[in-house]
Known about the structure:
- This protein is 27% helix and 23% strand.
- By secondary structure, it is α+β, with helices and mostly antiparallel strands.
- The chain is globular, with a radius of gyration of 13 Å.
- The termini are far apart.
Amino acid sequence: xMGANPDLKPSxxxxxAVAESTGIxxxxxxxxxxxxxxxxxxxxxMRSSNLERIKFDYQGYSITVGAADEGTFTVDLQKKKETxxx
Length: 86
């Protein structure tokens, strides 16, 4: 789990966390909007007082973004297991 950074929006934190975990530059990752609307993610977590976390998949990870303290967020990455198709 990555710690909170009050200077970054949740959507930016997600991309940075995945980049750090995979060793791929954030600019080389597919756009986050292919999996979730970044503006909606940011708005929901930054403006909703009763929303604790949002969970979605991106780049082979199950990602949970949660509100920590007011204005700060945590990003938890869980590598998804690959399933073989026979």
